[in-house]
Amino acid sequence: MTSLVHPQALCESENVGSATTVRAFTHIHAGAVLGAGCDVGEHVLIEDDVVVGDRVTIMAGVQLWDGVRLGDDVFVGPNVTFTNAPMPRDPTGPPTPVRTVVAPGASLGAGAVLLPGVRVGRNAMVGAGAVVTRNVPANAVVVGNPARIHGYVNDSVPTVTESSPVLFEELVGGAKLIPVRMASDLRGSLSAVELRSDLPFPPARFFAVFGVPSKDVRGEHAHRRCAQVLICLRGSVTCIVDDGTHRNQLTLSSPDRGLFMPPMLWGTQYNYSTDTVLAVFASHAYDGADYIRDYDQFLNELADTDS
């Protein structure tokens, strides 16, 4: 099936996939590449150095400047603005186009603004009118100006709470909540961990996370070999565990339980309370090469493992 270009549209590109519809008053430059099954609305401009994946919807009033990359199944709402110049008053402009990436499955709400060079992660959702000033993690829901994480797309996976019946059962990817001994009396409270018997591994490293602004996110990575146990000693923090197919969201808010995260599990922590102190026990010493910080790379390595 050939592409369907409205007679009042100007499509100079020969790289437009089958079953793609281009509506009136849209201009597609010669170097642009569009995949199959796309729907391009009216009054859209697509410059030469733009690559659009398959089944992408681009609503009316959108300009895709040189350097924009849209993955498969992306939705771009009406009047979304992609900015393309870090220094707009520089008469020479950027020497090379700034790469702005919207990963597969992501959605951009009407009137959202993306600063040049940002990356919107796989399946993320940007709210209407949001101003995206830095990278958006995979599966995150961001809103506001500047855009901040409001939550995560959970694919109908229920949130695990302290009263959930799965409290000490396995979560996705072999993660689980484990009990931690705690004692309280008039003198205060104490939580105790026997390093050789209470943890699922002999720890090689300990660190603590604290003083995190509530708007910020930590984690956003997986480990190839290292396992971890997270215990919230004070305050609360929301955690996401993601095995590449399913996710669980849970809140750590008591030092009488810990979250065990085995290797090859994507972890994210956000929504810190201002007084949060998060203790982390790790099975291995720090090794930068053990980290996977790109979600798509994480999915690729999982696929290689399965094959």
Automatic annotation (TrEMBL):
Transport in keyword set: no
Sugar 3,4-ketoisomerase QdtA cupin domain boundaries: 176-301
Pfam families: FdtA, Hexapep
Molecular functions (GO terms): transferase activity
Protein keywords: Repeat, Transferase
Name used for this protein in its record: WxcM-like domain-containing protein
Source species: Pengzhenrongella sicca
